[in-house]
Amino acid sequence: MMQRYFTKTDSPIGSVYFTTDDEMIHHMRNVMRFKENENVVLVFNEAITFLSRIQSLTDEGITFELVEEIKKNVELPLKVTIASAFPKGDKLKWITQKSTELGASSFAFFPSSRSVVKLDKKKAMKKKESLEKIAMEASEQSHRTHVPTVDFFGNFSSVCESFKNYDKVLVAYEESAKIGETTKFFSVVQDMKENEKLLLVFGPEGGFSEAEVEEMEAFLAIRVGLGPRILRAETAPMYALSAISTIRELM
Ligand code: SAM
């Protein structure tokens, strides 16, 4: 598998790219032990991607020749944000890694009334940094051209306030599933236009309270079932993203 690097910069005008990015130099020289004339994939801003050849590789910097632009689109046709109420333990790592592989565009993590885990600002910042690294690695591994962003919200109402930034907001609600709601998720996902922004909201192990769901509906969220089985907090986002890929990429 050809190693992929996200430059976090705009693509250069010409066909030569020079970087002094320490992380990239360290990884290429000391971890991967790349040599001149070997190839890697460079991903620039706006998902511009090039097959690139190493012209020179020193501790001071790396020069690449941009050999050929790779135009293959690997991103989901909808920009899907996964919003999960803080689950227990290390589940945010799992949700971030697997949802990145499945095409998530960004993450929003927040406290809800039944979240057992409470994160103060300092802990949340620390967690954000480690999850951003996980997202970067999962994007490289799954050959994506976009690295999902990771945001933490301090309270439930600030997440609801953010709903206005999306074209559609769906709340995965276990009680909807229990009463046999099986159509809304499919019809919303099927009808959305290419590159529209979809927010999917998931509860913690204890689920959402009816009051929380009603508050989200006041901000125009739609409650949906995700099928008859009750999934773990870390499984439900995987199910939803896989279903979106099936509806919009495979059918
Ligand atoms: N404590 C709840 C119960 O027993 O009914 C289950 C909560 S579930 C473990 C965690 C979250 O996953 C839910 O809040 C919801 O967001 C989502 N979820 C799991 N299964 C679902 C389903 N079949 N339909 C909709 N959402 C589901």
Topology:
Blueprint: E1 4-6, E2 16-19, H1 22-31, E3 39-43, E4 49-58, E5 61-69, E6 79-85, H2 91-101, E7 106-110, H3 121-141, E8 149-152, H4 156-162, E9 168-172, H5 174-178, H6 184-191, E10 197-202, H7 210-218, E11 222-224, H8 236-250
Parallel strand pairs: 1-3, 6-7, 6-10, 7-8, 9-10, 9-11
Antiparallel strand pairs: 2-5, 3-4, 4-5
Helix pairs in contact: 2-3
Bound molecules: S-adenosylmethionine.
Question: Can you walk me through this structure?
Answer:
With 251 residues, this protein is of the alpha/beta class. It folds into two domains: 4-70, Beta Barrel (Ribosomal Protein L25, Chain P), CATH 2.40.240; 79-250, Alpha/beta knot. Helices cover 34% and strands 24% of the residues. The protein has helices at 22-31, 91-101, 121-141, 156-162, 174-178, 184-191, 210-218, 236-250, and strands at residues 4-6, 16-19, 39-43, 49-58, 61-69, 79-85, 106-110, 149-152, 168-172, 197-202, 222-224. The longest helix is centred in the middle third of the chain and has 21 residues, at 121-141. The protein starts with a strand and ends with a helix. It binds S-adenosylmethionine (SAM). Residues 172-174, 177, 202-203, 205-208, 225-227, 229-233, 236 line the site of S-adenosylmethionine.
